[in-house]
């Protein structure tokens, strides 16, 4: 048991250190030697746990993805309505109030860290969206939603949120940003087939926009 514990402790230490460098220097500018010097280990020790810098990056990203999946699973178990569950998840997994996640998302917007952003999106679509799709399926059954493609719809929604976030970083016209936010909310209503007779569209629109600007 001690050997297993030491193995996991060292692996976690490498992931923690790599994450720290990725947040401060960015993925592309971080070297394996940076990680080795910080921890004080030999190159052979690093390669015992990870085959490359890219592999340790995947471990960093998957830790974030696993956290978001856990949040989604917790929200799924609540007694809230389906739309309320989706809104709660989006609020909980946002960077608001989470300094470390905010720093990581900031790095994602740097062009040299495009691979990190791509892997994070891939992980979210593959591991988090299936849980969110269960919320959409529940909504189909209760009449809150009406879509034949729960998984694909939520994947488009999540990918759209990232695209919208990227555009907000580049767009400096407040009016244009607001127009894009409102149009994206309209897209969400249509792709999920949200039943407007069962929800207050104005309040839901305001809630979604608040999520997007956090």
From TrEMBL:
Pfam families on file: TetR_C_39, TetR_N
Stretches assigned to the HTH tetR-type domain: 8-68
SUPFAM superfamilies the UniProt entry points to: Homeodomain-like, Tetracyclin repressor-like, C-terminal domain
GO molecular function, one term: DNA binding
Matching InterPro entries: DNA-bd_HTH_TetR-type_CS, Homeodomain-like_sf, HTH-type_Tx_Regulator, HTH_TetR, Tet_transcr_reg_TetR-rel_C_sf, TetR/AcrR_C
Record flagged with keyword Amino-acid biosynthesis: no
DNA-binding region ranges: 31-50
Stretches that traverse the bilayer: none
Protein's UniProt name: TetR family transcriptional regulator
